[in-house]
Amino acid sequence: MTIKLATYNIDGLPERVDLRQLPWVLRPLAWAYRLVKGTYTVRVNDNDGVAKKVAEMSRRLADLKPDIIAVQEDFNYHDELMSGLTGYGCGTHTGGIEPKNLRWLPYPRCKADGLGLLVRKDMAMIDDETIIPWQKSHGYFSHASDKLTTKGFRHYTLTVGDCVEIDV
User: How far is CA 67 from CA 83, 118, 123, 124, in A?
Assistant: First the structure.
C-alpha cells in the first residue's frame, strides 16, 4: 500500500482582531487602545489576502490528491482550507485566534492549537485523536510565543479498509 502525504502551514493568524470582542472586564483596554490608536482593531498578520491564498492552496492540494494532509496554524481560515477539499474528512478543529476563544486563567491563552489532519474519505477514517499539550510554556513574546496558544502534538489512529490501522 502506498500513501501520499502532504503537509501545509497555513499562516492562519487573522489579519486583524477587534478588541471590542474582549470580555466586559477587559473592555477598558479596548477603549484605551482606541484613544491612543484611533481604532478598536489590532493588526495581527501582515500578510494581506490570506483567506484568498488559503482557498487557492486548497484547490491545489485537491489537484494533488494526497491521502493525508497534516496542517499547522489552521486557525482562522479553516473554511477556506476545506473549500476545495470536499472529499476529505478532518479531525477536531479547535477554532480561531480571537478574543471569544481565549481562556484567561492562569494566564491568557487561546484554546486553539492550529494542528489538524485531513484524510481522504474514500481512503481512511479517523478513529481516534489525542491532543498531547506541552507540559511547560515559556513566553508571550519569546520562545515562539508559546504561551499564546495551546502548543503540543496530536496523535491520530486511522482505519484503512476493514482492519488496517495507521498511527499518525
Answer: 17, 8, 7, 8
pTM of the model: 0.84
User: What pLDDT score was predicted for residue 136?
Assistant: 83
Q: Can you state the percent helix, strand and coil of the chain, rounding each to 5? A: 25, 30, 45
Q: Give the residue ranges of the chain where pLDDT is below 50.
A: none
Give the span between the Cα atoms of 160 and 29, in whole angstroms: 51
Rounded CA separation 84/78 (Å): 11
Q: Which are the contacts of 61, defined by CB distance < 8 A and separation ≥ 6?
A: 6, 8, 69, 84, 85
In the structure grid, which three cell numbers stand for residue 33, read together? 487602545
| pLDDT mean across residues, the chain | 88
